[in-house]
Amino acid sequence: MGPPADPDGARALLRDAVGLGITHIDTSDAYGPRFTNRLIREALHPYAASLRIVTKVGANRDAQGGWPTARQPDQLRRQIDDNLESLGLDVLDVVNLRLGDAEGPREESLAEPFEALVELQGQGLIRHLGVSNATAAQVAQAQAIAPIVCVQNMYNLAHRHDDELIDRLADNGVAYVPFFPLGGFNPLQSEALRKVASRHNTTTIAIALAWLLQRSPNVLLIAGTSSAAHLRENIAGTRISLTDQDLADLAACT
């Protein structure tokens, strides 16, 4: 909630990320709220042709920092308009429909809100659609309504409940985007992780991200960072090739 402590540093970090080859930024107008999108616009607009900015709708922020759902068609239209305005865009690259709640996915129909986004896509405001915090059944329901390009769910070394879904999406050419790839509010920690990191003379963060990248070719990472040093630590994971022994050791992290 609210602006970052160092807005100039945040803008510099965004420019560093793009300069280092990052081409995918995950955001939402509810982050801040609005501050994050404004910082992205101030730092990067006009956007490079290679950059994909992916936002999400389906929830707002209340004064206490909570995430009340907002999935009625008129609410979704306002959120799309707000994202377009704050990012300085005429069309959004990808919009994820956020489902469930802060506790996780919930089995419920997504037909009405997803069809509302399909209608906005038909109006030229959205290029591609995805779902976030979704069950496998909801992913299938969305795909029966319209094509999706990504699924954004919680998944990491210690939480591998979506293994079957990841494989199915890979077969369909759909990206899987793990949020909390490093554990989120409960950072990943294990002796096995430290052992493999020591073997490669790197950090546990780099190993955890390398594992995700080797998990499946359709995995697209959104590791968050607030410092240039952390950014480079994250990127280091792309240069690591884990061995069969590494993977066997990391199996103990579940």
Model description:
The protein has a domain at 7-154: NADP-dependent oxidoreductase domain (TIM Barrel, Alpha-Beta Barrel). The protein contains 10 helices and 6 strands, in the order αβαβαβαβαβαβαααα. The chain has helices spanning 7-19, 35-44, 73-87, 111-122, 136-145, 163-172, 191-199, 204-215, 228-236, 244-250; strands at residues 24-26, 52-57, 92-98, 126-132, 150-154, 175-179. A 6-stranded parallel sheet has the order 1-2-3-4-5-6. Strand 4 (126-132), helix 5 and strand 5 form a beta-alpha-beta unit. Residues 6-253 form the NADP-dependent oxidoreductase domain. One of its GO terms (cellular component) is cytosol.
Q: Quick recap of the structure?
A:
The protein has helices at 7-19, 35-44, 73-87, 111-122, 136-145, 163-172, 191-199, 204-215, 228-236, 244-250; strands at 24-26, 52-57, 92-98, 126-132, 150-154, 175-179.
List the helices and strands and how they pair.
Elements: H1 7-19, E1 24-26, H2 35-44, E2 52-57, H3 73-87, E3 92-98, H4 111-122, E4 126-132, H5 136-145, E5 150-154, H6 163-172, E6 175-179, H7 191-199, H8 204-215, H9 228-236, H10 244-250
Parallel strand pairs: 1-2, 2-3, 3-4, 4-5, 5-6
Helix pairs in contact: 1-2, 7-8, 8-9
EC number: 1.-.-.-
GO molecular function: oxidoreductase activity
Domain NADP-dependent oxidoreductase: 6-253
